[in-house]
Amino acid sequence: MTGTTQDQIARNARVVIVGAGQGGAEAAILLRQYGHEGEIILVGEENAPPYMRPPLSKGFLSGEVDAAALTYKAASAYEKAGVELRLGVRAARIDRAGKRVLLESGESLAYGRLVLATGGRARRLEAPGSDLSNIFYLRTISDVERLRPAFQPGRRLVIVGGGYIGLECAAAALKRGLKVVVLEAAERLLARVTAARVSAFYEKVHREAGVDIRVGAAVSAFAPGEKEGELGFVVVGRGAEAEKIPADLALVGVGLIPNDELAAAAGLSVDAGVLVDEACRTDDPDIFAIGDCARHRRHGFLERSVRLESVPNALEQARVVACALTGRAPPDASAPWFWSDQYDLKLQMAGLSEGFDELVVRGSPDAASFIAFYLRDGRVIAADAVNRPGDFMAAKRLIAMRAKASAQDLADEGRPLKELLGR
To answer: With 0-12 CB in 10 A as exposed, 13-18 as middle and 19+ as buried, what is 227?
Structure first.
């Protein structure tokens, strides 16, 4: 093609991003910052402009912050970057042969490159009575706006699920004066993501705050109360052993399902998430996927297939895609990290503790200031820090270095962690 290179075609290609969460918004802005010259269209199913989800189960639910405080970037940022926002519209189908995204409105958008940032949805609890009123899930602003009016002092809230979302909501509910019961089907809280010592610390904190914690408590049904159609009880167990726990409302937090159906229907490979390579590219070289909906075939740092649910991961993948689409060198893959705020506790986590063979605690859980290191074969693979931001930053570097460290050195508060970084 005379006078036009493939690079120029790529720079001028229209990029359509389906999913207007933080990952999608970040990818759109970075594309322009990195020199993309073509149109950028950001399509969002919700009517709200891109916003931050983590505060939904914390300050927004408790009423400490309003919806405006959730805004990820001001409208002027998209205008300045020449990013077109299409909000309140849902993508219905991808026509890969014609390189078009068909919207439920009947409109279609041609694309040169397509980025799927479709996120995920709250996993529904399939149990008898799950269609009763006053059973809530939490994933979007509108979910919280429906829930908050029911958050009245003295009301009985049953939270199904003792993971981060459930515990953050429990803390927010107590601030609003509700009576809270947390039901966890596993034998301890946070069982999938933390060691037993960290679980025990959080169980103690919540119990002391006034939360009724029940572990090994699998919900079998929801039952109506005096008013037909309204929730009255949450049923735990079955048969003669079943217990009815009185509830004015229930909040279910039992995980997330990636929104990979759009990709699957288009013939792209999915496996509990859209499968992508290290550049976040799918089977189709013109289609990428990022955020909660994407599963790495082999994560560059973790060196295995994994789907990560975290804002830092979505933002990192947004950078990876922006680099891939503008011909820049990609950033180095890094260890994942997460956080959770409950009461006056800031929990910061780095790495994945799966498969650890040694746990070392530095500091004092009794003083609510400690960091738990997870080791495998003598190397630091993960850490959970409670109210220890300095130690957390050092731990992230130890994990990134795949550093070896002795239990004695890690536990010794008289020895700064930065000394271990110099090895």
So the answer is: exposed
Q: Is it the case that residue 423 has pLDDT exceeding 80?
A: no
Tell the burial category of 14 from Cβ atoms under 10 Å away from its Cβ (0-12, 13-18, 19+). Answer: middle
For CA atoms 66, 69, 70, 75, give the dihedral sign.
positive
pLDDT digits (tens, 9 = 90+) for 230-282: 899 999 998 888 999 999 999 999 999 999 999 999 999 999 999 999 999 99
Residue 8: is its pLDDT beyond 90? no
Q: Kindly state whether residue 336 falls inside one of the protein's structural domains.
A: no
Indicate the length of the chain as a whole number. 423
CB-CB contact of 22 with 72 (8 Å): yes
Q: Which domain holds residue 162?
A: 135-252
pLDDT digits (tens, 9 = 90+) for 83-115: 999 999 999 999 999 999 999 999 999 999 999
Q: Residue 93 is part of a domain; what is its CATH number? A: 3.50.50.60
Q: Are residues 239 and 167 in the same domain?
A: yes
- Encoded tokens for 384: 């959970």
Tell me the HSE value of 124 on the side-chain side, using a 13 A CA sphere: 7
CB 51 within 8 A of CB 71: yes
Q: What is the DSSP string of 164-191?
A: HHHHHHHHHHHHTT-EEEEEESSSSTTT
Question: Each residue of 336-358: pLDDT tens digit?
Answer: 999 999 999 999 999 999 999 99
The 10s digit of each residue's pLDDT in 39-64 is 999 999 999 999 999 999 999 999 89
- Distance between CA 26 and CA 316 in Å, rounded? 9
Tokens coding 87:
């909000």
Average pLDDT of the segment spanning 220-228:
91
Q: What is the DSSP string of 335-346?
A: --EEEEEETTEE
Average pLDDT, the chain: 94
CATH number at residue 380: 3.30.390.30
pTM: 0.94
How many domains does the chain fold into?
Answer: 3
Q: Are 167 and 223 part of one and the same domain?
A: yes
Residues sharing a CB contact under 8 Å with residue 385, sequence separation 6 or more, in sequence order:
347, 348, 349, 370, 371, 372, 391, 392, 395
Is residue 258 a contact partner of residue 273, using CB atoms and an 8 Å limit?
yes
49 secondary structure, DSSP code: P
